[in-house]
Amino acid sequence: xxxxxxxxxxxxxxxxxxxxxxxxxxxxxxxxxxxxxxxxxxxxxxxxxxxxxxxxxxxxxxxxxxxxxxxxxxxxxxxxxxxxxxxxxxxxxxx
Length: 95
Hints:
Layout: H1 2-16, H2 22-56, H3 62-91
Helix pairs in contact: 1-2, 2-3
């Protein structure tokens, strides 16, 4: 889905705007950070959570809770980045 967002964003940005506008650069930078979070944090953490859940059966362990809390913190950061990107795309500061 993030690739679709990237392609659509490039199409929409080049339709009326220049790719070197600061708000476009910042928005694409946020998207790249989100790509990195997916590959470095969310996907591996999700795999660890699945493995821990299978290992623990029906009762989550302290290790599962720590990993779940960690991914929750990164999820909050990702959500904040999405909100900033939406603000940049709607307000277009400096445009």
